[in-house]
């Protein structure tokens, strides 16, 4: 499992960011995230860019953030499912 950040406030902020992005259902501007999370934009950006490196969020456009591929969205299989025994062609 990934190592948690050392600062418990950052962990809490990370969870709040993910919750706001989930609730929005679409990309959110940094200014709106800072307002919703009630933190200075500087602190928000530090956490957002760390989360970007961890693929928890994605940068959708200038100062616009969305959910990343780090398990916060619906999980899609990496490979297509194998056909069942009955569907496999016989050799």
UniProtKB/TrEMBL annotation:
**Which keywords accompany this UniProt record?**
Antiviral defense, Apoptosis, Cytoplasm, DNA-binding, Host-virus interaction, Immunity, Innate immunity, Necrosis, Nucleus, Repeat, RNA-binding
User: Does the keyword DNA-binding belong to this entry?
Assistant: yes
Main localization category? cytoplasm
What processes does the entry annotate via GO biological process terms?
A: apoptotic process; defense response to virus; innate immune response; positive regulation of necroptotic process; positive regulation of type I interferon-mediated signaling pathway
Using the record for this protein, list the coiled-coil segments as residue ranges, or answer none.
none
Please provide, in alphabetical order, the Gene Ontology terms of the cellular component aspect for this entry. cytoplasm; nucleus
Domain named Z-binding: which ranges? 7-69
* One Pfam assignment: z-alpha
Query: Where does this protein reside within or beyond the cell?
Result: Cytoplasm; Nucleus
Which GO MF terms does the UniProt record name? Answer: DNA binding; double-stranded RNA adenosine deaminase activity; RNA binding
Chain residue ranges for the region called Disordered: 59-91
Matches recorded under SMART domains: Zalpha
Which Gene3D superfamilies does the record cross-reference, listed alphabetically? Answer: Winged helix-like DNA-binding domain superfamily/Winged helix DNA-binding domain
Q: Give the PANTHER family listed for this entry.
A: Z-DNA-BINDING PROTEIN 1
State whether it acts alone or in a complex, and with which partners, per the record: Homodimer. Interacts (via RIP homotypic interaction motif) with RIPK3; leading to RIPK3 activation and necroptosis; interaction is enhanced by CASP6. Interacts (via RIP homotypic interaction motif) with RIPK1. Component of the AIM2 PANoptosome complex, a multiprotein complex that drives inflammatory cell death (PANoptosis).
Name under which the protein is recorded? Z-DNA-binding protein 1
Q: Where does this protein come from, organism-wise?
A: Neovison vison (American mink)
Origin organism lineage: Eukaryota, Metazoa, Chordata, Craniata, Vertebrata
